């Protein structure tokens, strides 16, 4: 406790009670490392406020004592944005006890909940009133909506419904000095000044603590049509995407891409999956339509894919004819993270590009990486429908830490320079955190970075909010 203000523990205990503090080393351990075990730190105190008032009291105390705060939800992030440093001087503020769904309004198509509610619980609450909350991630059973909003999470339904930013109408936020912004407005139109909501969404806990949100619900789809296709290259899949958008409109909810090496890795490492197509294809796509009216949906997808086959956009197609087949196809796509962890050490790139630039980028990046390290294993997959690639390089499991660090720096510069040339983003949906913090300064313009710093200084003058992350 020597690194902390002498009265801090006493004041925090008065604010949240014994139930709101975690002080035992073994009990604190899960809060001090990310789920990938890539980032590890130490916190002398983990604080778990039970409501917004307690959260405000905690932030007021930390502001007064200049104590740095790391806000943490489900701790499922991919960029080290919710892990304390090694100093022991940072307090972890966990939102786990902020876990109430406050209201559901099916007529207004909104749901108001606290930041610590699990994403899967929000989806279930929407379904209970015959509505649909479309944000969907592999970690939805353990990630929280506060973390989803803080990182502007994406997932598999962005193509139709947008990122987390598009799914939130209002926020409640505790500011660094303990004041509360009550912005829980369930409105589609509100032209009364600056959009403060969008300052906090995607800010990764550097500007305040999101404690609650009004979320946008949609009509619940009652029918789905799913297919797996094989294609010769990315350009062919981009053509197919354009055709499906024209033919199917907003019914197109997912267009997931896997390169042949990515599919091979999954088949090698994940049990109870098999190749959907008999032939060899350089790229694959998992496509899904959804609608509130089921009649004709499968026929619509079949007609569009038949035309794509005739025009050579794709080489082969497998249409799902049952719920079990659909689940089997999605199990393949969802197995990629597990496959990479089992097979080696991945240098990961979560990038976004204009869809029209994807084919040229992949060709250039593949060539540049092979020139830098012949035979390198590129695992390229992602949400092709919204231009988000997880363009990773897989190294052997026994790669020494120093070699991994050197390879990461070398590969990052190759990939991210090409992304910048294509007017893309080096962080599409995972956030910046610690992983991309230094690179962000390299790729942001001086004006843009200065504006971000001015916002940070205005809201957090004591610089206590998630230091060492994002900026």
Describe this structure in words.
This protein is α+β, with helices and mostly antiparallel strands and 471 residues long. The chain folds into four domains: 8-94, Uridine Diphospho-n-acetylenolpyruvylglucosamine Reductase, domain 2 (2-Layer Sandwich); 101-219, 2-Layer Sandwich (Uridine Diphospho-n-acetylenolpyruvylglucosamine Reductase, domain 3); 223-334, Alpha-Beta Plaits; 344-446, Alpha-Beta Plaits (2-Layer Sandwich). It is 35% helix and 21% strand. Strands 12, 13, 14, 15, 16, 17, 18 and 19 form an eight-stranded antiparallel sheet that branches. Strands 5-6-10-8-9 form a five-stranded antiparallel sheet. Strands 1-2-4-3 form a four-stranded mixed sheet. Helix 13 (358-372) packs antiparallel against helix 14. The model has no long low-confidence stretch (mean pLDDT 95). It comes from Comamonas antarctica. GO terms for molecular function: catalytic activity; FAD binding. This is FAD-binding oxidoreductase.
Secondary structure elements and their pairing?
Blueprint: H1 8-16, E1 21-22, H2 25-28, E2 46-47, H3 52-65, E3 69-72, E4 91-94, E5 101-105, E6 110-114, H4 119-128, E7 131-132, H5 145-150, H6 158-161, E8 168-174, E9 180-183, H7 197-200, E10 209-216, E11 218-219, E12 223-231, H8 234-248, E13 252-259, H9 260-269, E14 283-291, H10 297-310, E15 316-319, H11 323-334, H12 336-343, E16 344-347, E17 350-352, H13 358-372, E18 377-383, E19 388-396, H14 401-421, H15 437-443, H16 446-459
Parallel strand pairs: 2-4, 3-4
Antiparallel strand pairs: 1-2, 5-6, 6-10, 7-11, 8-9, 8-10, 12-14, 12-15, 13-14, 13-18, 16-19, 17-19, 18-19
Helix pairs in contact: 1-3, 8-10, 9-12, 13-14
